[in-house]
Write a structure and sequence with these properties.
The chain has 19 helices and 34 strands. It is of the alpha+beta class and 759 residues long. The protein folds into three domains: 201 residues, no CATH class; 94 residues, Alpha-Beta Plaits (2-Layer Sandwich), CATH 3.30.70.260; 310 residues, Peptidase S8/S53 domain (Rossmann fold). Strands 2, 25, 27, 28, 31, 33 and 34 form a seven-stranded mixed sheet that branches. The protein has a seven-stranded parallel sheet with strand order 15-16-14-18-19-20-21, with helices on both faces. Helix 10 packs parallel to helix 11. The radius of gyration is 28 Å and the shape is globular. The protein starts with 5 loop residues before the first strand and ends with a helix.
């Protein structure tokens, strides 16, 4: 293998790369606008008006909510019925193909007039995209988890922590009117005595209320403006199954030259562990001493600091980080001591308080917890949304575990179909901004459930909400024997006293990914969270390229794969490969085009292009929790391929990475589910083994599209492209020299290692 000692190149943006978009498509009809269609739509809107009659009689200022269902082929944003909803504006959505609208008596009456006399061609076309208009009924407001708990006889456990969310109309006046109305109705039911308003930021708002019975839930669900009723979750540290293996190892616990601090929000790092104690630079305690259990956090911290050495995964690099130790999660194991729990809303409050105090100096955080009964099957979880808000507000990177399967049967490999959806990731692993980590086995045996590098039998899979790839990456988290024992199959870490023990779980694969990210971030001369994230995932994709090509479903279990153990391996090139970074931005109404990309001449044979191409795109889309499965409000697409100049002098482009598809607009749902559309991370790989017919050159094209006509000034992104050739062929110089010849300015992605070498 060629030595990696050449710098990655940052390619600077040229003014000429920005091109204006051409005009969009015309108006599309999905059926004929007939008198029958007009009458049906009139009847449906009159039904909504009748349903909310009592609300409008009380006050015409109180907004209500209707739900529009559109045809599957009309899901694409260009067909959303915006003109039809001019008097009943769109305020959100839940599932793909569903739209929430604000309805008022006047708004409905004005819309009824327009239905009979359509004011525009677009209004008429919008009518043909709609299949149903209906009110929001009480039964769809009660969460499945809450109704299940009630039917199973456990309602008393949650009745004092009921969580109500209201619809958000994106209008201060409407929201105030609705909130006052809902509080008045809660008072009329007789439940205002135990009521609390909880707010985080501008968008995350809850009403916490104590009820007496499930009948109270039914009454609450009948209040206009209530969007959902659920309950605040409780957290305790997970039950742990450690094995003391009796090994001793001399670990370096001295000073470090790293300036990176990692926050661990967990049960607290033990003061009795001499190997870790000196690295704890700050501690925030929110759990009383008698309810503290330091085992879990100590194992996590030891994995970050010494996990490679303890598990025989030595590298030349030894990054030693500082820790902010947040003792937030109480003990849940009665064999250790008294047990307690912390409410979801309390945890949110703690996280925000900690970030307010430490986020300026601590940019990387480990949160190895999950809600067992919050399996991700659709829209975002509340805690996932909150973590996104926190990461945006404080500019930090949070790592979360994908979660463990804690009930039998565990998953084998290949996975048994009988599991259904019960092995999906759990909240808050659906956080869009977070890096979610799954687990694969490091060790196996004749009696182990899975083999080395196969997904751990307990590791939960994706996809996440909105079909976003989750987990993002995987790392070693352990294995089990068929008798459900560790039996030398787990990961080694340290206990509270510094002894080497074994454990397993996604709680322990997560800090391994944290360590790799922190090492990348530490090595960067200029710290950049989004770039470090892109580099981590790009490394995983390139390492796992064959694995992910074998079966498209593998991405649900592996994410984009496992990143390299060495930061220098990630941050440098060898001569037979070149990695370029485009840290740029794209504006609304335009796209980026980079023509005549210098594809290596040494990879052209017999009139065809050969080689391997990996490409990773990372950006932070605008998020809006009002829109359910359309939570991500901006999309950036990238295509790398060949263009040919036609006879009329215009270039014809064929995307090669990813392979250009013949998707039709009606397959918008398929593009979301299978094509990374609206996903904040897109990573592709192609091995060109049969060759691509030579053209007039290669082109990179980057497009940005917002949803539902929102205005976006500019969207920043990181694009990483790696081109690999046969070992010993210097394609690095070919590409770098070619860029220079074509007028592109490039800078080295400088690392601390390179700086040290020059000194």
């Amino acid at each position: 293998m060629s030595e990696k000692n050449l710098p990655i190149k940052l390619v600077l943006q040229k003014t000429s790369d920005t091109q204006k978009n051409q005009g969009g498509g015309g108006t599309k009809y999905f059926c004929e606008v007939t008198k029958e269609l007009q009458d049906v739509m009139t009847e449906k809107f009159e039904g909504v008006l009748s349903y909310y009659e009592s609300v409008f009689q009380e006050s015409e200022l109180i907004p209500a909510v209707g739900k529009i269902t559109v045809r599957p082929e009309a899901i694409a944003k260009s067909h959303k019925p915006n003109d039809f909803c001019r008097n009943c504006p769109i305020i959100g959505s839940e599932d793909l193909g569903e739209i929430y609208i604000k309805v008022s008596k006047k708004g409905i009456e004005d819309t009824l007039k327009l239905i009979q006399n359509p004011p525009s061609e677009r209004f008429r076309a919008n009518m043909t995209a709609i299949t149903d208009i209906e009110p929001i009924t009480a039964n769809e407001r009660i969460s499945h988890d809450l109704s299940s708990i009630s039917s199973e006889g456990y309602f008393d456990l949650v009745r004092n922590k009921i969580k109500i969310k209201l619809f958000d109309f994106d209008d201060d006046f409407d929201n105030i009117q609705l909130t006052e109305y809902v509080l008045r109705k809660i008072d009329e039911i007789g439940l205002s005595g135990r009521l609390e308003l909880i707010t985080y930021g501008e968008k995350i708002k809850f009403i916490k209320v104590e009820v007496q019975s499930y009948d109270d839930i039914v009454r609450l669900a009948g209040i206009n403006g209530v969007k959902s009723i659920d309950f605040f979750q409780e957290y305790s540290l997970p039950l742990t199954n450690y094995t003391n293996i009796g090994l001793k190892m001399l670990l370096d616990s001295g000073e470090t030259d790293s300036n990176v601090t990692i926050g661990i929000i967990d049960g607290g790092i033990s003061d009795d562990n001499s190997f870790l104690k000196s690295y704890v630079v700050a501690r925030e305690e929110y759990v009383a001493k008698e309810y503290q259990n330091h085992s879990h956090a100590t194992f996590i911290a030891s994995t970050i600091q010494f996990g490679n050495e303890l598990n025989g995964l030595e590298t030349a690099e030894k990054h030693r980080f500082s820790f902010v130790d947040v003792v937030a999660i109480p003990n849940g194991d009665s064999t250790v001591g008294p047990i307690d729990s912390i409410g979801e809303e309390e945890l949110m409050e703690i996280i925000e308080a900690v970030m307010e105090k430490h986020a300026a100096t601590t940019k990387i955080w480990n949160l190895s917890l999950g809600i067992e009964n919050k399996v991700c099957t659709g829209s975002m979880s509340d805690l996932g949304i909150f973590l996104d808000y926190i990461q945006d507000k404080y500019q930090v990177q949070i790592f979360v575990s994908s979660g463990n399967i804690n009930t039998l049967p565990l998953r084998e490999w290949p996975p048994q179909t009988s599991l259904g959806e019960r092995d999906r990731i759990i909240s808050p692993a659906d956080s869009v901004r977070a890096i979610t980590v799954g687990s694969v086995a490091l060790y196996d045996s004749a009696d182990s459930i899975v083999k080395t590098m196969q997904p751990s039998p307990f590791s939960r899979r994706g996809p996440g909400a909105n079909y976003i790839v989750k987990p993002d990456v995987v790392d070693y988290g352990g294995n089990l024997s068929r008798t459900l024992h560790i039996d030398g199959l787990g990961m080694k870490g340290l206990d509270i006293c510094g002894n080497i023990i074994e454990g397993n779980g996604t709680s322990y694969s997560t800090p391994r990914a944290v360590q790799k990210f922190a090492s990348i971030y530490d090595e960067m001369a200029e710290k950049d969270i989004l770039l470090a994230k892109a580099m981590l995932i790009h490394s995983a994709r390139m390492n796992s390229r064959d694995l992910l090509e074998q079966n498209q479903d593998n991405i649900k279990y592996y994410g984009f794969g496992m990143p390299s153990i060495s930061a220098q391996d990630i941050l440098q090139c060898s001569e037979d490969e070149v990695t370029l970074v485009f840290r740029q931005k794209v504006t609304q109404g335009s796209h980026l085009e980079m023509y005549d990309f210098p594809y290596p001449e040494s990879l052209i044979r017999g009139g065809k292009y050969f080689g391997e191409i990996g490409m990773t795109l990372a950006y932070n889309p605008i998020l809006d929790e009002r829109y359910g499965k359309e939570y991500c409000r901006t999309n950036i697409d990238v295509s790398f391929g060949v263009y040919r100049i036609s006879n009329n002098g215009k270039p014809k482009f064929s995307g090669c990475v990813p392979l250009e598809s013949t998707w039709d607009e009606k397959f918008e749902k398929a593009r979301v589910e299978n094509g990374f559309k609206w996903s904040p991370i897109k990573s592709y790989y192609r091995k060109i083994s049969k060759g691509i017919q030579i053209g007039d050159g290669w082109k990179i094209r980057i497009d940005m599209n917002p949803r539902n006509e929102i205005t976006v000034q500019a969207q920043e992104f990181v694009l990483i492209i790696t081109i690999k050739g046969p070992e010993g062929v210097d394609i690095y110089s070919e590409v770098i020299n070619g860029l220079r010849e074509r007028g592109y300015v490039t800078n080295n992605l400088e690392t601390r290692q390179q700086i040290r070498q020059r000194q």
